[in-house]
Amino acid sequence: MAKGTPRGGFKLGLIGCGVRGVAHLLALQGARGVQVAAVADLYDGHLQRAREITASSFTAPDQLLATREYRQVLARQDLDAIILAVPDFWQQRIFTAAMAAGQAVYCEAPFGYTAAAGEAMLAAAQKSKAVVQVGSGVTSSKACQRARDLVASGRLGTIYMVDAVRNVGTSLGSWRMPYPPDASPATIDWDTFQSAAAHPQSFALPRFFRWRCYSDYGAGVASDALIDSVTALQWILKCPVPTRVSASGGNYRWHDGRETPDIFHARLAFPHFEVQLRCAMTTSQGGHKLSFYGSTATMVLEDTRGNGFDTVQVLPETEAEPYVTAVAAWPAAPRQWFYMEHGLDASGNPSRQPPATEAGEVWSVDEAGPSAHGQNAYSDTLVGRHLASFLAALRGRGTVAETAQLGQESARLAHLADDAYRQAQSPGGHAQAGSAAH
């Protein structure tokens, strides 16, 4: 417990007060004994919004450190942990500095802007031994936990393919964030924002508020829109490095200067199964599914409420084959012999009822149930439950829900897919990229 923290409570710092950072502030409103004492962001409007939330729930305005300089937050000796919710390209610099300062960190996914950045962040975490939790949230999903147990039990048999589909039904979900009316060089520290970029640019609102659309700032479609699916995949199956990766797609709807595609397809080939990742930011029919195709059953995870995967469905592979059609051209005698050999009646239908284990099953998991924070509309979300796991680990009551190792391994798979897409789009590029090169 940091110096000055109330007994049994926590003092937290937040670096990055954009959409995701504010979601954390709102989720923490119901947390008993939690004080958000310091926030940092490069846009004054985000800092003001953080002041409004913390003043009503956590900290008197004159006691809150609200700054553009993240180093001031890391330098606070009275903080128990940092929540890091910054654009991807800023992650490594701040995370490694936090590890060097011995700060515990809750880090938003993806864990690392690139695969190399993720490896460096993991090494820093292992050296520091500080408490680190990655924030995709799927490991706190009851549906994902149920799915993991089903796979471990052998219920699906041998898994041959996994299909992840994310359809984004809104322009906001397609990364077209609006611009605040006061946003300008006077209210945004543009020079600092650009100081971590590979290719610094002149001031442009889209690059600040829609940073995911640009390769200098965001890791890519697989690393953002599909990172929950990829993390669930890695957590459930423990995938090795793929043998081949290919990707395709393009910009078909949003001609707004973005460098990321609005339609994305990737294929990751492993020695004994294949993974497909698909994302479309071109349809009003939103949807998010992760399907595991096995030799004895298919399992489908689905997000039906926009709050993470909340439904698990198991669809057994039937043993009955369409033999009636297949042997319809045979004469009667060999046809009846064939039916008898396969345990069918004289009409070619199964002569027994399928066992109960072959029946389909659906689990609808209440992902909006009470969390460890208490009762309120935000803390009872998956974000709140994931944060609760982090706070419990800080108290020494269990381990973090999503380790830095899992975060790094999941991000690596997503980066392979994003890198394959960028390579295919480059002049003279090819649609396929060997995993050894990525």
Topology:
Elements: E1 10-15, H1 19-28, E2 34-40, H2 44-57, E3 65-67, H3 70-74, E4 81-84, H4 88-100, E5 104-107, H5 115-128, E6 132-134, H6 142-152, E7 159-167, H7 190-194, H8 205-209, H9 221-224, H10 227-237, E8 244-250, E9 263-269, E10 274-280, E11 287-294, E12 297-302, E13 311-316, H11 323-326, H12 332-341, E14 361-364, H13 382-394, H14 404-425, E15 432-434
Parallel strand pairs: 1-2, 1-4, 2-3, 4-5, 5-6, 7-10
Antiparallel strand pairs: 7-11, 8-9, 8-15, 9-10, 11-12, 12-13, 13-14
Task: Describe the fold and architecture.
The protein folds into two domains: 10-139 and 373-404, 3-Layer(aba) Sandwich (Rossmann fold); 141-318 and 356-371 and 406-437, Dihydrodipicolinate Reductase, domain 2. α4 (88-100) packs parallel to α5 and α5 runs antiparallel to α14 (404-425). With 438 residues, it is α/β, with parallel strands linked by helices. The radius of gyration is 25 Å and the shape is elongated. The strands form two sheets. The protein has a nine-stranded mixed β-sheet with strand order 14-13-12-11-7-10-9-8-15, covered by helices on one side. It has a six-stranded parallel β-sheet with strand order 3-2-1-4-5-6, sandwiched between helices. α2 (44-57) links the parallel β2 and β3. The chain contains 14 helices and 15 strands. The chain has helices at residues 19-28, 44-57, 70-74, 88-100, 115-128, 142-152, 190-194, 205-209, 221-224, 227-237, 323-326, 332-341, 382-394, 404-425; strands at 10-15, 34-40, 65-67, 81-84, 104-107, 132-134, 159-167, 244-250, 263-269, 274-280, 287-294, 297-302, 311-316, 361-364, 432-434. The relative contact order is 0.16. Residues 369-379 and 431-438 have low confidence and may be disordered. The two termini are 41 Å apart.
